[in-house]
Amino acid sequence: MTRLLNLRAYLALGLLAVVLFVVAGVTRPSFLGLKFDPFGIDARKMDRLEGQVDVLEREAIGNAEIAAVTQTFHTREVVIRELSRQAEIEARMAPDANTPLDPDRVARIRSADNRLCIVAPAICPDPDPAGSGADPVPVADPAG
Fold first, then answer.
1. C-alpha closest to that of 25 among 14, 11, 38
2. DSSP H or E segment with residue 78
3. ∠ CA 101-102-103 to the nearest 5 degrees?
């Protein structure tokens, strides 16, 4: 009797193993080394992976374009800052650098500066950084 129970247990385990292999063969034929794919699982997986590759390629191209634009902007900013620094040095060393300006001309220059500051406030320096109240542009005395 015990021999019959052992035989039934082995038969049940064998049947379970056969069922598992059949299920694995139908759902994942590559598991058994077969090229048969009745549900198109591998084709769908391949399509999904190709779509991901396309997305990643476009993302990489976009990142490269952003990096190029950022580099160009940075280069231009460095060049503009250097040119501005050189122009400021030349202006301070000009022979008429300390000559007072006509009040109307000072008003026109301040008006143009104010319009620029409205358009691009980030480029405008603090008008009186020391808080001294001193006028940075000398104005000629209208009387004389």
1. 38
2. helix 41-93
3. 110
Higher pLDDT, 70 or 5: 70
First to last CA, the chain: 133
Q: Write the DSSP string, 8-64.
A: HHHHHHHHHHHHHHHHHHHH-GGGGT----TT-HHHHHHHHHHHHHHHHHHHHHHHH
Residue-wise pLDDT for 8-57, tens only, equals 888 888 888 888 888 877 776 666 666 666 677 778 888 999 999 999 99
Each as own residue / partner, the long-range contacts of residues 137-140 (CB below 8 Å, 24 or more positions apart, any chain) are: 137/101, 137/106, 137/109, 137/110, 138/98, 138/99, 138/100, 138/101, 139/100, 139/101, 139/102, 139/103, 139/106, 140/100, 140/101, 140/102, 140/103
Give the whole-angstrom CA distance, residue 6 versus residue 101.
Answer: 114
Return the structure tokens found at 118.
């409205």
Sole residue written with tokens 């006509």 = 102
Q: Strand, helix or coil at 128?
A: coil
Provide the pLDDT for residue 97: 80
Place of tokens 């994942």: 28
